[in-house]
Model the fold of this input.
Amino acid sequence: MALIELQDVSKLFGFGDATTLALDEITVSVDKGEFVAVMGPSGCGKTTLMNMIGMLDKPTYGDYLLDNRYVSRFRSNRQAKLRRDRIGFVFQSFNLLPRLNVLDNVALPLAYKGMPLVRRRKAAGDILELVGLHDREYYYPQQLSQGQIQRVAIARALINKPSIIIADEPTGNLDSIDSKVVMELFSDIHRQGNTILLVTHNPELTRYAQRVLYMQDGRIIGDEKTAIGTVAKGARHTYYRKQKTTDEDLAAGISALMHKVPAKELEEKAKSKKRRGRKGAARRRSRKAKK
Done:
């Protein structure tokens, strides 16, 4: 039985001639415990789809079922409780509060549940130890690296022990080393039985997923099963093929050429070209004089 199921879901923004179709009759299901990567160009509807699944937004048309129950039939307070207790969000922009230290940022969701201060700080400390930041409890976000901040955001998403993790470009602001640390952390969370939905532009990150959804113009145009540890075929063909030569690539090529061809040889070639130019000019002057 599917944990998440969308049936002909569409989402419209705006009115009249300014209407934008963000999602176009999407039908998809995700089983419990799956690790699903969602790929597609900017503006194709990936974030809107995640907001729909996370109950941050409502479909204009169609149905969303969570655990085989229609989400539209839940009252707003019931949806808020499900969102708080069952879904953890990890964003590219981190969304930490700068005036709170790491421990209190992570413990914040428990404050909304009414948990006493001592208990929620104890729980936050345990989660921070899990993500390798137990020694940074009393630091503030501005005192941490980008990778550490993202791990704090993941700890905050895990504090309520959610069964679904929604990560929207969680490595977009990180370098390759921090990205690997964060993705290994998601991999550990997945092995514990959590369902993970990961939005990414990076085909390399499909190595961690069991399944890849490809989106374009508000529609799912591909659904590929993939083995953990390998880059999805569709991601490899689509995204690697689009890579273009940049100014840095050209500069690197010129630098390599300079190393390969000795400077003296390049100088001789330049002199030879200059001599040929002088001879050609002399011939042209001679022809003009004869005329």
Q: What stands out?
A: The radius of gyration is 28 Å. The beta strands are 2-13, 20-31, 35-39, 61-66, 69-70, 87-91, 164-168, 195-199, 211-216, 219-225. The mean pLDDT is 85.
